[in-house]
Each structure stands twice: as structure tokens, then as C-alpha cells.
Amino acid sequence: MNVAAQKQTSKPIGLFDSGIGGLSVYLHLTEQLPFERYIYYADTLHVPYGNRDSQDIESLTLSAVKWLYERGCKLIVIACNSASAHALETARLHYPQLPIVGLVPALKPAVIASKSAHVAVLATKATLDGILLNQVIANVARPNLTKVTKYFDPNLVPWVEAGMPEDSITAQDLRQQLQWFAEQGVDQLVLGCTHYPFFKTFIQQYIVEQQLSMQVVDSGQAIAERVKQLLVSHQLLAPSISVLDNEPLSNAISVYPIDGHTQWPLVFYASKYDDNLGQLIQRLLGTRTLVLSPLIACYEP
Ligand code: DGL
């Protein structure tokens, strides 16, 4: 490989979400692509996006994509269903040469797996109203005569951002909602927001306790597979041992996996930093992660 090609392949993958939800996608990416470098941008100043209007979401997302593009990312993942629903197409039009991957709730596999022909999608209002999900409903659910129940609780994203305290009213509401879904015959539950896989275990525990027959699906793994495919087809896959020096990145949180699962630390930027952010990242990424200072937000939209 020549030096120019090596430089391209060693560039980072950019991940964007309104908050820390996109870290659920990052976890899948590091499993499949451990030799890649990752830069994460969380728009914590404007989270949640889910109840914002379409124009607002589009302009916030385009600013974030531009920022990641200017950091030299070779591929960008809009690791947010709400942002993808309202800005994916426009972002691709702005950067036709750049592979951009967006998220859509994993409704298609849920419809295929459903025996009761009734699935529920938990997502934000922006995702539930957005074009991407509604296309899947029209093209996959309807022809398969599958009922889709949409559900949005505006407290779920702030609950995850707060570290998911189990004694909160949101946790209680979620349990009640699961019970109601079961009573309605829902057998597939789609987590259509990247924040939600962080409470997948909480949901699964309740399903087991109550002996509900319900599967929980999300799109994290499929997205990581898609990213891998694109890197291969664009000849952008990082070499297993990087030949380039790691450029120093200021104003970011560097998140080091202690067990060396990934080769590079995750470089995490946020539009608003508060004291709990480092701790929350560490909690969500697992105890093997060490979050290092400086913990400074640098992005001004
Ligand atoms: N993680 C975002 C998503 O996948 C959260 C949306 C929000 O900020 O409300 O939709």
C-alpha cells in the first residue's frame, strides 16, 4: 500500500449522536472493527432531539457532520435514528464522496420474526414521524399484514443520560408499558433509538421475570456490519497495525479500554460538558474503560 492510501485508511470513523446513545453503536463497531480509530461527537447542548422539529434536527445534524468531516473522518455514522430520519439524505447530498451511514429502527427483521403479526417500535417522536421508518412500515410491515404500534416516552432519553436510576418513575412507566404490549400480543419489541440498547438488559430482566414472550431487537450489529462492508468496498479498512503516529487531539475526552480490546482510544467530544459526563461514559462503556482528562467541550454550533 502506498503512503497516500495508508493515510486514507488510518483516518478515523466519525460518530454522531444528540447525546451518549451512539455509544451503543460504537460498542458494536469496536467488536467488528477493533483496529479503527473513532471520533465521537455528542450534541449534549441540544439533547434531546426527539421532540424537535424537522428543520431544527436537520440543521443541528448538518453542523455536526460538517464538524466531523473537517476532522478528516473517512466515514461518518449518524448514530441517531432521529437525526437520520430528518437529515441523512441532505447530509449525503452535501458530501457525495463521503460514505455516510444512518440508522433506522430494525423493524424489518422484527416483522419477519414476528409470529403474532404485532410489533412495537419504541423511538422518539422525530423517528416515529420520520420518512425512513414509515417507508419500512409501508414496504415491509403492511405487505406482511403486521401491525406496528409506535411508542414514544419523552423521558426515556433523559433517563439514559441521567444514568438510568432504577427507582425513577420512568423505569416504572417502562415496566407498565411492557406489560401492556404483552397484553396486546406484541412479540417483537424494536428499540428504535440508540440510547435504548443501554436499558435492554433492564427490559430483558422484566420479560424473564414476568414470563412474557417477547424478543427485543436493535440495529447496532447490522450497522456495524454495514460500516465494515462500506470500508471494504471503498478500500478504507484500517490496517491492523497503524503505520501513522496518533495525532494529538486537544479538547477531547480520551476513553482508553484497559483490556486493549480496541487499538485506539475513543476520542469523545461534546457540545456541553458537565461533571458527570466522564463517569457516565465509563459506566456505559463498561468498567474496563478508563476516561482520561482533559474533559473539555469544544464544539460550538
Ligand atoms: N439517540 C437518539 C436517537 O437514536 C436520541 C434522540 C434524542 O436525542 O431524542 O434517536
What does this structure look like?
This protein is α/β, with parallel strands linked by helices. It has 2 domains: 3-103 and 221-298, Rossmann fold (3-Layer(aba) Sandwich); 107-218, Rossmann fold, CATH 3.40.50. Helix 2 crosses helix 11 and helix 3 packs across helix 4. The chain has helices spanning 3-9, 23-32, 54-70, 81-94, 107-113, 125-129, 131-141, 156-161, 169-183, 200-209, 220-233, 277-285; strands spanning 13-17, 38-42, 75-78, 100-102, 118-122, 147-151, 188-191, 215-217, 253-257, 266-270, 289-292. The strands form 2 sheets. A 7-stranded mixed β-sheet has the order 4-3-1-2-10-9-11, sandwiched between helices. It has a 4-stranded parallel β-sheet with strand order 6-5-7-8, sandwiched between helices. The model is unreliable at 293-301 (pLDDT under 50). Residues 17-19, 21, 47-50, 80-82, 124, 127, 157, 193-195 line the site of D-glutamic acid.
What tags apply to this protein structure?
301 residues, alpha/beta, Rossmann fold, 2 domains, 7-stranded mixed β-sheet, 4-stranded parallel β-sheet, disordered C terminus, binds D-glutamic acid
In short:
The protein is an alpha/beta fold and 301 residues long. It is 42% helix and 16% strand.
Estimate percent helicity: 40-55%
Reported by name, the CATH topology of the largest domain is Rossmann fold
- SS-based class: alpha/beta
| Integer-rounded radius of gyration | 19 Å
Series of H and E elements? HEHEHEHEHEHHEHHEHEHEEHE
CATH architecture name of the largest domain: 3-Layer(aba) Sandwich
Strand order of the largest sheet: 4-3-1-2-10-9-11
- Mind describing the biggest β-sheet? 7 strands, mixed
The pLDDT mean sits at 89
The proportion of residues in beta strands is 15-25%
